[in-house]
Amino acid sequence: MMLSLQLDVDMPNPIPHGHPRGLDLGFDKFVSTSDGEEIKRPRFLRTLQSKLKLLQRRLRNKQKGSNNRHKLNRKIARLHQRISDTRKDWHFKLAHQLCDGAGMIFLEDINFVSWQRGMLSKQSADAGFGQFVNILEWVAQKTNTYFAKVNKDGTSQTCATGSIGNITLVGTDRNRKLAS
What we know:
By secondary structure, the protein is of the alpha/beta class. The chain is built from five helices and eight strands.
């Protein structure tokens, strides 16, 4: 006998409190914070791409349906899984690092599907921006950190004074903070 229960429980959103932190995602720097911290993006796929390329080249020469082809397919799948697991692990560690020092996190609401098209599609897929946002939202909920997405229009502007850096608009009331 098996019993399965499913409950629809709404978790209350944390109230805004503490230090606000605005995040800006990008290709060169994975995350730039309103505190001036810049985190470079590790190249997960790039590091193991040569090994993956070699295995896929070997697969091309194997006869379809053979045991050696199935073994090689499993090796390729394990390598893809390793890339995925290291990316996900890094996303969790970064999300915890960002949530630990902040009471509120604001992130621009970006359509990452459009980033997957065009010249930078491989780099965008390698970075896993959508997965990171989902993980960050979950970690923020878990650590009682207020999380909100803000409209992407006008969140990164060149500073009017001509100094180097961007003005990152943080929060719903659009307080301006200079991010270097």
